[in-house]
Write a structure and sequence with these properties.
The structure is a single chain. This protein is mainly beta. The protein has strands spanning 2-7, 10-13, 18-26, 31-39, 46-52, 59-60, 68-73, 78-83, 92-102, 105-110, 114-119. Strands 2, 4, 5, 6, 9, 10 and 11 form a seven-stranded mixed β-sheet that branches. The relative contact order is 0.32.
Length: 120
């Protein structure tokens, strides 16, 4: 079992910054990747940023490239999302994700999410 707990959401003005944190616990030794997704009200969940356990080049959604940075502290089992120059369209519930691969199957774990609200 894996538990993910997000924190750091809040209400900010456009142009400001936030750092989201995800505390992971449980059986993590065979996790393949971890990432951040978001879900605006009334829309589908979408990938924001993801990185493999090995820390190879992270993948970002086009809409956040150059503004958001994903990072991980492996010894502390923490995942972070630095969000700069926030825009109203970044408003969403942000979820932490852990992906495990058992070819050909895949298993995902999710946190409960943290709300980010950006006003203009």
């Amino acid at each position: 079992q894996v538990q993910l707990v997000e924190s750091g959401g809040g209400s900010v003005q456009a142009g400001e910054s936030l750092v989201l944190s995800c505390a992971a616990s449980g059986t993590l030794f065979n996790v393949n990747s971890m990432g951040w997704y978001r879900q605006p009200t009334g829309k589908e969940r979408e990938l924001v940023a993801r990185m493999t356990v090995g820390g190879l080049s992270p993948h970002y959604a086009e809409s956040v490239k150059g503004r958001f940075t994903i990072s991980r502290d492996n010894p502390k089992n923490m995942l972070y999302l630095q969000m700069n120059n926030l825009k109203p369209e970044d408003t969403a519930v942000y979820f932490c994700n852990a992906e495990f691969l058992y070819p050909p199957d895949r298993e995902d774990y999710w946190g409960n999410g943290t709300l980010v609200t950006v006003s203009s």
